[in-house]
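Narrative summary of target 7.
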Amino acid sequence: MDTKTTSIIAYITYIGLIVAFCAGDREGAKFHLNQALVIWLFSLLSIIPCIGWIWAIFMMVCWIMGLIYAINQEEKQVPLIGGIKILK
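Modeled conformation, tokenized:
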């Protein structure tokens, strides 16, 4: 898979993230792989009652922004959590 396809698939589902990481162009799409991983991990906090609902809406907005950035091949960070680096 090329870089753009790998970046887009990383945002689709958890399985898409794993497929993109294993079968895709990791070096070219490392930024979007990291962003997708951070979004998916932080979205787990949405199970907290009341506050989690607001957090879930914020995570959905971050997910949409990340997907749009991947489609446009831009390396922009999502707000608030975009600066976290898990993959190096």
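Helices lie at 3-12, 14-23, 30-43, 51-71.
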